[in-house]
Amino acid sequence: MQRPLSKEEQDWVERTLEAMSLRELIGQTMQDHAGRLPFKGDDEAALRGYLAQYPVGSFFIGGEVIQKAKGKAEDYRDWTVMLQRISKFPLLFSGDLEFGAGSAVKSLTAFPPLLALAAADDEALAYEYGKYTAMEGRAAGFTWALAPGVDLLLNWMNPVITTRCLGDDAGRAARLSTAVMRGMQDYGIAACAKHFPGDGVDYRDQHIITTINSLSEEEWFSTYGHVAQRIIDQGVMSYMTGHIALPWIEDGDAAVKPVPATVSERITTELLRERMGFDGVVLSDALDMGGFLAWGDYEKRMIDCFNCGTDVLLWPGVRYFAVMEQAVADGRVSRERLKASVRRILEMKARLGMQFTGAAGEDGLALPLLEDKLPPELDRQVRQLSRALAGRCITLVRNRTGQLPLNPQTVRRVLVIMLNKVTEGRRYERMNLFVEQLKARGLQVDILDEFEPLTTLRQWELSGVAWDAAFAPFFLPLHGMMNTARPVGEAAKAIWAMQHAETIKPVGISFASPYLLQDIPFLDTLVNAYSLHEDTVELTVKALFGEIPFQGNSPVKADFEGDYHGSRRLRTF
User: Fold this and answer.
1) Phi/psi-derived region of residue 96, left when phi > 0, alpha when psi is between -120 and 50, beta in every other case
2) pTM higher than 0.85
């Protein structure tokens, strides 16, 4: 459970609560998106007018995890200070700090993703992961991390969480997510576990439709429920509900229309709050996602979302104010229920010290920034952590013929079969990091990224070209190809083309999905590196040539030799 508030903190909460008008109470339950304001974000006069009309309680800032990090830390900090100065009540600033503060802010440190942390499987490292995320994040103005992910990768075709989770084992996910959470909250940022009741079972994406966690009650409590109970018991401040249905808890009507957690009283109140004892802030997932939109019209969606037990609605839009005011007036939403949510929100703000925000808007608990970074010694520590994790996570999944490590004395010319061209005209230039590392070793690198005709590779061989090693690197960023994490399109054609060759034994290297052997089962050699994090790419090449050991252990069942349908432990629902 969370730490009790002091008398002074509780007094501040109650005074602030009683000072709020109905509209201000409603505003506390809405989180706005700073990147979607209808005017230039640094226009102070416009912001003053906006907050006077729409007194929201929190803002999302930084890049979204499904897109990319953007902006400078100093700019975010200046913006949050200005907002705090002009807001009547202290604001919270959240962000997708899933893989370090650099996963939201381009100028800060991006860590290898959670799946890489699971491959290292070190609780002390996980605590540091959360600690330095919080130190950099709060310095940039963040007070609320929409992290860590506590989902489980139980379906190899799931397109949403892939490297955003801690693998397929509930015990490991519980240990590591709790350590990340403690690191965050010990250093001044509220953690938000996500996505209740758990993603990773369905093969579909709740950005498009409501997805289903189809585990039985017993299965759920031994997996997702185990992770959730552990992080709740250890005091996580907030929990995000997803647009994910949990059929075992609903009545028969759920078979006709899936009930997402974001509108389900049985999931949010009866299960999460009452049965599991969560007493923190419940935040919905983004309310512009297809898995929520299908529930009904705007008014029904918003009222059902709030009434099911949600405290803060993520990006409902400013129409929310009028809908809620009318719902309170006609009794569909009770003022007591509204005040209960606002009390929880203010209690979280008190635990974060937001009541001490200065008159000028400054955050006295935030570390200083020097040239857009933490002070030199701390900056060195956070980057050392990032590199250490990169070295610890790289996993040799299959080495059937003993091809690795490669001999640097005999490997001089190599082939790189690019698998990152998923659709015509779309490429991911960060794959060039891998090629650059090979060239930096003085290797001659031939690149095959066009596969018309399919026999291109075989024709090269017949012309007398020979390679000492061939690499098949794969990378697909989240939503790089909507609704899949697999090699599709031109990338799938590359797999087809590869099999026309007769002289190469390709080394597969996945910088994304850990399940590449499902789509390329003929690979004798596979390395999982989990991301194109710069240090990870460099150290992966070193490991390929035997200069450092492979230290990671696969956080999922990744080698399906003898299990041609991938059926063991990986259920397709």
Assistant:
1) beta
2) yes
